[in-house]
Design brief:
It is globular and about 60 Å long. The chain contains 16 helices and 14 strands. Helices cover 34% and strands 16% of the residues. The chain has 525 residues and is of the alpha/beta class.
């Protein structure tokens, strides 16, 4: 398949074939640049659009977009070697259905990959069977973006260097979304029918892309619907002053003198090879680099507006709909992610991801635990508490808040207690429906083989998802905010009461109260 982008040239992708039948499934364009490479002078700066002179290819020599996208530099994952990487990673993979587009163009799913915002790649998911074999007929755009210290390092020195900026990975996603809005019509897509979604950190990013999109700083509204899988809005992030110590620790590990001027520190960091920076992370106290409340991409008023109901009112005003939900055993997928071994290390570990006063508040119930309790005890406590903070509690608190201003017909909640057999090769069966196992449902195998009975079942589950992405009326079945469309452990689709709704809301209340009690003082500094 060839695509002609007026002013930018010609792109040629590949038609993917079914590995068994050899029948065409869909078209794919991969490694498609959407921004200037964020290297050298552009490291730790907002992404820049492609220059006017950029060309994807010519009529005589179309650009070949068949290879996987570059993978952002990232640390080893749990002892495993990271893939070959390249800082020139601001590229998208694009899947296009076969056949003629509808009159207004294919609906578009802008899908953000997960990985704690520290790991992963847009190459790791495969929605080709979803497009080919289910009612979900849409273009899927999945961008690569900067991760870890390349995407979310923050400090006074970086803030003062040139134009103030932080949350570079979020800005990457935003530029990729704007590129999609401006260019997807050339692939047969409808730019006025864009759903943004993602799993885990991709779901967290989806929320913050939505918040920016409907906030005061965006040029125009792009997002019509959001598809949030196993994550929500999280908690109000750290401010710049709280992450300064992490930046100073990075300088110490790299041997950069603290007596250097701010400009000299940044210049030295920009001159270092990516491999050296990635290796340095292994020796740091806090290994995760998280978004901050910068007052630029992320407004200081965001969480107060959620608590007060104003955010829900804005969603209602714009008619934005949401699919959002979780799995029953998420904690198994979290408990091995750098687990703590004591109460104090529990607070320290949670402080990688959340403001320390929030970490202390949610850890208080475990303060009386005996210090000598086993590592397995603390690993289990961490997995469950982290799953609540990342997903179960903060997601339900957010949904409860926006439901005060939104009709239930716009909030489509789900819960899953089932998994396909193909997941067994990645996760022990006893883990049940744990974090990320549902990708074989949402992406119809996600590159793995499904049994025939599983295909029939998943197609049924996905019918309202197809309507949702298409912008049609959704027959979800829930009647109240505490009900969910449920896949039961024995593989049945039912509308049920959310059995943990009341149990999970208290942690949201704790985070809300401690956030409201901690006034922001110069959040950028």
């Amino acid at each position: 398949m060839k695509v002609i982008n007026p002013g930018k040239g010609v792109l040629e992708g590949v038609t993917l074939l079914d590995s068994v039948t050899q029948k065409p499934k869909c078209h794919r364009f991969s490694r498609v640049p959407y921004a200037t490479p964020p290297v050298g002078h552009y490291r730790w700066r907002k992404p820049q659009p492609l220059p006017e002179s950029f060309s994807y290819g010519s009529d005589a020599a179309p650009g070949q977009y068949r290879k996987p996208s570059s993978v952002c530099p990232q640390p080893r994952v749990f002892g495993r070697q990271s893939p070959r990487h390249d800082e020139d990673c601001l590229q998208s993979n694009i899947w296009v259905p076969l056949g003629k587009p509808p009159k207004d163009g294919w609906p578009v799913l802008f899908y953000i990959h997960g990985g704690f915002l520290q790991f992963g790649s847009n190459n790791y998911d495969d929605p080709s069977a979803l497009i080919a074999e289910t009612d979900v007929k849409c273009i899927i755009v999945s961008p690569g973006y900067r991760l870890g210290l390349f995407g979310f390092l923050a400090s006074r020195e970086l803030w003062e260097d040139g134009s103030p900026a932080a949350n570079f990975g979020f800005w990457d996603q935003r530029l990729a979304l704007e590129w999609t809005y401006e260019n997807i019509r050339y692939f047969g897509g409808n730019p006025e029918n864009i759903t943004v979604g993602g799993l885990s950190a991709g779901s967290y990013a989806t929320f913050h892309q939505l918040a920016y999109d409907i906030g005061p700083n965006a040029r125009e509204q792009i997002i019509r619907r959001v598809f949030q899988l196993s994550n929500g809005c999280g908690v109000q992030p750290k401010v710049l002053s709280e992450v300064q110590q992490q930046f100073d620790d990075l300088l110490y590990v790299l041997g950069v003198s603290s007596s250097d001027s701010p400009a000299e520190k940044v210049k030295k960091l920009r001159s270092l090879p990516a491999d050296l920076l990635v290796t340095a992370v292994d020796s740091m106290k806090q290994k995760f680099f998280r978004p901050i409340l910068d007052g630029d991409f992320m407004s200081e008023d965001l969480f107060p507006s959620i608590f007060s109901g104003r955010f829900g009112e804005r969603l209602n005003q714009l008619g934005i709909q949401t699919v959002i939900g979780d799995l029953t055993q998420e904690f198994h997928g979290y408990k091995n992610v750098y687990p703590p071994t004591s109460y104090h290390s529990l607070i320290d570990r949670l402080s990688w991801d959340y403001p320390r006063h929030v970490a202390e508040a949610v850890s208080t119930p475990y303060k009386s635990s005996v210090v000598s309790l086993s590592k397995e005890y603390w690993k289990d406590i961490f997995g469950r508490l982290y799953a609540d903070m990342q997903i179960h509690s903060t997601m339900r608190g957010y949904v409860n808040s926006i439901s005060m201003s939104l009709p239930i017909s716009t909030i489509h909640r789900y819960r899953i207690d089932w998994r396909t057999k193909s997941v067994d090769k990645k996760f022990p069966r006893e883990f049940g429906a744990t974090h990320t196992t549902d990708m074989s449902i949402w992406f119809f195998g996600n590159g793995d083989t499904l049994e025939d009975s599983e295909k029939v079942f998943i197609r049924e589950w996905l019918k309202p998802i197809a309507a949702f992405i298409d912008g049609r009326k959704v027959a979800w079945g829930t009647k109240s905010v505490d009900q969910v469309r449920y896949i039961t452990a024995d593989g049945k689709i039912e509308v049920l009461e959310d059995e943990v709704w009341k149990a999970k809301l208290p942690i949201w209340e704790v985070t809300r109260e401690v956030t409201k009690a901690t006034p922001l003082s110069k959040p950028r500094l």
